[in-house]
Amino acid sequence: MICPSKWMSFQEAELQCNEYAAHLVSIHGPRENSFVHNLVGPQRNMILYSWIGLHRHHVGGEWKWTDGSDVDYLHWAYGQPDNYNGVPGFTPENCAQMYIVQGAHWDKQWNDVKCTREVDYFVCKRKANWR
């Protein structure tokens, strides 16, 4: 499930996923990363951002998936996560988004951002036997 109709914060997107017995997507390898990327779909001359389910409770804390699965794959963009370069006074960047930018070297890579930022896409994931 992806949702381009309303920009949402990390928490709003996770709650929307929960309504479908799902969580923001966890990603466990390069093939799954590409699959998630292709769900949102790169669009010519556009920069898109999609929430993924990776977050931490505080700066310096351990990154975790919202579905509780192991963090066994990471695909951070160069220099990320950087908590906005560690600039004091800024809202901590404790949530992750995926870049969807056709042709850019950072396409499909991840960035840490503040959780209250509103992003235009998100992808939910649930177990096949969710009923």
TrEMBL record:
One matching Pfam family, short form?
Lectin_C
Q: Which PROSITE patterns match?
A: C_TYPE_LECTIN_2
Q: Where is the C-type lectin domain?
A: 8-124
InterPro entries, sorted: C-type_lectin-like (IPR001304), C-type_lectin-like/link_sf (IPR016186), C-type_lectin/snaclec_domain (IPR050111), CTDL_fold (IPR016187)
Can you name this protein?
C-type lectin domain-containing protein
